[in-house]
Design brief:
Number of strands: 4
Helix content: 55-70%
Strand content: under 5%
Shape: globular
Structural class: mainly alpha
Radius of gyration: 26 Å
Length: 376
Amino acid sequence: MTAATDQPPATPEERPRLERRARLAEWIRSRQPAWRPPGWAVIGAAVIAAVVFPVFDPPLYILRILATIGIYALLSTGLNIVVGRAGLLDLGYVAFFGLGAYSYALVASPQFGIHAPFVIGLTLAIAVAGTAGVLLGIPVLRLRGDYLAIVTLGFGEIVYLVLLNLDRPVNITGGVSGIFDVDPADLFFFKVTSLTANYYLILFFLIVGVFVAHRLVASRIGRAWVAVREDEDAARAVGVNTTTAKLWAFAIGASFSGFGGSLFAALQGSVFPNTFLFTQSILVLSMVIIGGMGTLWGPIVGAGVMIVLPELLRDVGAVRFVIVGILFVVLMIFRPHGILGARRPQRSLRRTLVARASGAAEDAAAIKKPASADAR
C-alpha cells in the first residue's frame, strides 16, 4: 500500500491548496540545474589554480596584489569569527593587525639588534595580539551593539596613538618613521626573499587559517558563537557560557589579525603607524560584508573584490572610489547578504521545497482518488 492510499481523502476545501502546492513543487523541480559541481571540486580547482599561477611568470605587480589579497583574506577570516559568527561588532580590529606587525618587527629588525627566527616572531605576534584581544574582551563583556562598537573603535585609536608616539623617551616603535629593514620570513633556514616565495608562504598560511576557522565553526565553541549571535539571553538561559564564548571570539579573531600582521611586516620589510588607521578596520569589515558575513569563503571573495576592483579602476583616478561605492550599493540592494551569504538560505529553502515535492505528488494522487471514487 502506497503512502497516498494511507492518507485520508482530501476535502473539497483542501483541494485548491494541494493543487497550488503541487504546481509550486513542479515549478521548483523545473528550475533545478541538471548538474552542479560539488563544493570540494570548486575549492580544489581554486587551490590548484593559485598554486600553479606563478609558474606562468606573471608580472610582479600581479603577484603583489595576490599576496596582499592573501593577507587581507586572513584578516577578514578572523574578523568574520568575531562579527559574522559571534555577532560582536569590532571597529578596532586593525589594532591587532598593528600589534602583530610591530611585535614581529621589534624582534626581527635592527631596532633592538634582535634577529629572531621567523617562527619565534610569528608566535610572538599571535600571542601579543591574542592577549590584547582578551584584555579588550574582558571590560566589554556586558556591552552590545553600538556601545561595543564605540569601545572597540576607541581601543583601535589608542593603539594607533601608542604606536605613533612610543618613540620617546625610549625609541621603541620608531614613531612616525616606523621600523625599517625588517627581516624576511624564513622557514627551517630557508629565506623567503623573493615575491614568489612570499606569495606561496602567504597562500600556505591562508589555507591553514581557513582550515582552522572551518574546524572552529564546526566545534562546540562555534555553535556557542552562533547562539550568542542569535540571542545572548536565550543562549545563557540554556546553559551556554557566553563569557567564555565572547572571550574566545575576541582572542581567536585577534590572533588571526596578529598572524596577518607578521606576514605583512615580513612582506613589506617595514612597518609604519599610518598603515594601521581606522580606515583599515572599515576596509576589512567591508570585505566580510561584501563576501558574505558568517560564511567560510565569503571573506576571501570579499578580500579579492575589495582589492582588485579599485586596482582595475586605477586609471580613472579618484573617481574610482565613487564608482566602487556605487557598485557596492547596487550589490547590497540585490545581494543584501553578500556575494556568497545569500546563497545558503536560498539553497536551504529550495531543498526544503524540493523535498516536499514528493509529498505534493502524493497529495495530488489523494485529490484524484476521491474524485474517481465519486464517479463510480
